[in-house]
Amino acid sequence: MKILIVDDFSTMRRIVKNLLRDLGFTNTHEADDGLTALPMLETGNFDFLVTDWNMPGMTGFDLLKTCRADPKLKSLPILMVTAEAKREQIVAAAQAGVNGYIVKPFTAAVLKEKIEKIFERIEQAK
Amino acid sequence: MALKSPGAQQSSEFEQILKESTSELIQKVESGELTDAVNLIQRISDERNRNLYLEVGRLTRALHDAISNFHIDVGVSGPASEEMSQIANAADRLNYVIRMTQDAANQTMDKVDESAPIADRLRDQAHALRNDWARLVRREMKPDEFRDLYRRIDDFLRDTEDQSDSLSRNFSDILLAQGYQDLTGQVLIKVITLVQEIEESLVNLVCMASQVDQITGIKHEKTAKPEVEAHAPEGPIVNAKERIDVVSGQDEVDDLLSSLGF
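YS: structure for the whole thing
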């Protein structure tokens, strides 16, 4: 599975990358905001997107909305990992079509649980 | 503010003079002493101007003090313009905090990345030895195999000793990497103090400016707060307990999402 990790802080990208590796996902790529992520997503055949919300350039929320409006990316599973904790933001992300939402700080167990849940649902929908 | 500023005292003095002169002015006008009345108007006007000059002077001095307190480079003094202002200095300090925390996080992760395979290797070796050891206990081992096991156990013990040493070194490096907290803490306290000083000076300036407004009769229209974009990112919530519009952790996120049918 090919995964794109989008976060403006390299340390957070590294943490997510390492946790994903421990879960057996070794094919991970990185981008530091929505604007760099988009062209990678368009051409890279990614199977899964993990993105932060608050980033310069293009936020993760805008990236989510852009993906959902793109016929090629509209069903790409997207997990948001963010410090944004306002209820209205979580509701907005859900309405925009996010597949999972994790608030920072988070644990390895939470990441594992959410990823498993996302793929379980996708399997069920098939 | 508990104490009246010198400016406030000045303007109440002006108010007093204005009140006294007004009743006198009406009297003079009613009794037809117009020359006296005009002289009175002149006196009120002079008094107002005098107060205005005083207030503007005070305001200018306060502004100047505030500027020199923050060492803001106003660009008037040539060589001093190379000197860094405290504000720029504060930005540098905060960048230092970002750099230090990032370095510490990377050092810690480097050491974890280095240590995890060591622990994995020791576990794998121990696991393999334990399987062979069980065969030995069950007397299923040929003499050749036993000689090999004998050598491997010796290797394993030596390896374990060496690898444990590297693990201990890495743990101690991880511990030392947390030393940033002391340094960044000191820097942050300095910046917090500066922000508080600036806030205090600005409040004082606003108070003084309001005296000038009072004398000149300037009215400010309330500036509307810039509209916040819907769902604009706010970053980490530092006072989550005092707020009802934010979740306090992952459990609340999950509850909220499941209430939406997620």
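YS: worth flagging: The interface with chain B takes residues 9-11, 14-15, 18, 53-54, 59, 61, 83-92, 94, 101-104, 106, 110 of chain A (CB under 8 Å).
IM: good catch. Also Residues 108-125 of chain A form the longest helix (18 residues).
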